[in-house]
Design brief:
three-stranded antiparallel sheet, about 160 residues
């Protein structure tokens, strides 16, 4: 993210590693189903299960799931500056969402029971632009820190410029 003149970062982060546990559990279920499918196929083809092939399929898919979860998390970046909110997602296909900090009208946090147990939450920002431009920092480790950062950014944006400028 390129900063404008006089702009500085107040908060920058990624979704918490705990926020992708659901992704990993679904991936693990996929690995088990694929390994079972490989076992059935080798059993039908060879009258016995090829444990080497089944193990190879399971390990390969497990590695893919682990890498995909890591990439999904690390290539989602949330930034709050004294001028704007910024969300960047993706490595190959990139999606960028941003709005001026003075357009943020409401900041809401949400934590499901599972998220409370994992100590993560979602922070929703309602903007003056309407529903199409709402922001969400999903799965952040400390939603309260994000809310405090937005309030700090809004105070800084509303503060009068120094006399020398």
């Amino acid at each position: 993210m390129d900063l404008e003149a006089g702009e500085h970062i107040i908060f920058q982060g990624h979704p918490s590693w705990r926020s992708i546990l659901g992704f990993y559990l679904k991936g693990l279920a996929l690995v088990v189903v694929a390994a079972a499918g490989a076992g059935v196929v080798t059993r039908v083809a060879n009258d016995e299960v090829d444990t080497g092939l089944v193990t190879l399929v399971a390990i390969a898919l497990l590695v893919v799931v682990l890498i995909a979860g890591y990439v999904k998390r690390m290539f989602t970046t949330y930034t709050i500056t004294n001028h704007r909110l910024h969300i960047r997602r993706g490595i190959i296909a990139r999606a960028v969402q941003q709005t001026l900090i003075n357009r943020v009208q409401n900041v809401n946090t949400h934590q499901s029971v599972l998220q409370r147990m994992l100590q993560i939450g979602n922070v929703n920002f309602d903007t003056a632009a309407g529903d199409d431009y709402d922001f969400e920092f999903a799965g952040v480790a400390d939603p309260g820190e994000v809310v405090d950062s937005v309030h700090k950014a809004q105070r800084e944006a509303d503060a009068p410029a120094p006399a020398g400028r």
